[in-house]
């Protein structure tokens, strides 16, 4: 397949598995239906199904809901652009404490380089000072809970983000190896031994297949579909 031309697309780096930080300050401000178009807020599985069915049969309600989603997306984008990242570790702690829960993933990805030993040393210092304080008020106790929750959320979030980045890099290298291989089966067996067949590789293949067909590269898309079938077989072993 030397005549095929492949441009490997890197998968999006949005983190989807990071635990949500949830402090008193981090509250989602998007309301269910501020204009009352969709009726009062409802919770629970049955209520969500009813809400979904209503959207499907009510075009006006569906349009109103989509408008709310667009407005919330625009609000979050504007908020991201307006925030100024501080210079010191102490100020960065406050920055994260003032970050909305649904924005924690984005901020971890954006500020990964700042979330280093110095930053976590500052969190541990503040936690230690509060724990060993002679006098503790309700506000101080709340501060301790916030800091401990933030520390745990960021540590788990960073672990998930770093794992995703490593898997993405491995998947990109693996896909390049497959697309340039003259013996797909042998290459796949070698990758199985090295534990390089995973869902990240499959997702990257899917993205490149879609891009190939979108760019009218049917031959390349068909070839990658065959590779995908082989990868899927080894993935489920």
From TrEMBL:
GO-annotated cellular components: chloroplast; chloroplast stroma; nucleus
Domain of life: Eukaryota
Chain segments annotated as coiled-coil in the UniProt record: 55-82
Keywords attached to this entry: Coiled coil
GO molecular function, one term: mRNA binding
Protein name (database record): Dimethylallyl, adenosine tRNA methylthiotransferase
Organism: Arabidopsis thaliana (Mouse-ear cress)
């Amino acid at each position: 397949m030397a005549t095929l031309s492949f441009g490997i697309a890197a998968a999006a780096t949005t983190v989807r598995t990071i635990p949500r930080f949830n402090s008193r300050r981090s509250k989602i401000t998007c309301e269910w239906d501020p204009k009352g178009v969709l009726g009062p807020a409802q919770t629970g599985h049955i209520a969500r199904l009813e809400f979904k069915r209503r959207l499907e049969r009510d075009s006006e309600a569906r349009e109103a809901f989509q408008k709310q989603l667009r407005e919330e997306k625009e609000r979050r984008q504007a908020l991201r652009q307006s925030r100024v990242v501080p210079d010191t570790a102490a100020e960065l702690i406050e920055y994260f404490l003032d970050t909305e829960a649904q924005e924690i993933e984005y901020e971890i990805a954006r500020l990964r380089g700042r979330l280093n030993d110095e930053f976590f040393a500052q969190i541990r210092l503040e936690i230690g000072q509060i724990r060993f304080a002679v006098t503790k008020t309700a506000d101080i106790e709340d501060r301790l809970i916030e800091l401990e929750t933030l520390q745990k959320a960021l540590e788990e979030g960073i672990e998930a983000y770093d794992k995703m980045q490593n898997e993405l890099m491995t998947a990109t290298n693996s896909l390049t190896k497959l697309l340039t291989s003259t013996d797909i089966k042998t290459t796949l067996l070698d990758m199985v031994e090295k534990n390089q067949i995973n869902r990240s590789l499959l997702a990257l293949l899917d993205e490149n297949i879609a891009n190939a067909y979108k760019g009218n590269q049917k031959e390349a898309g068909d070839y990658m579909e065959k590779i995908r079938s082989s990868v899927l077989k080894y993935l489920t072993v």
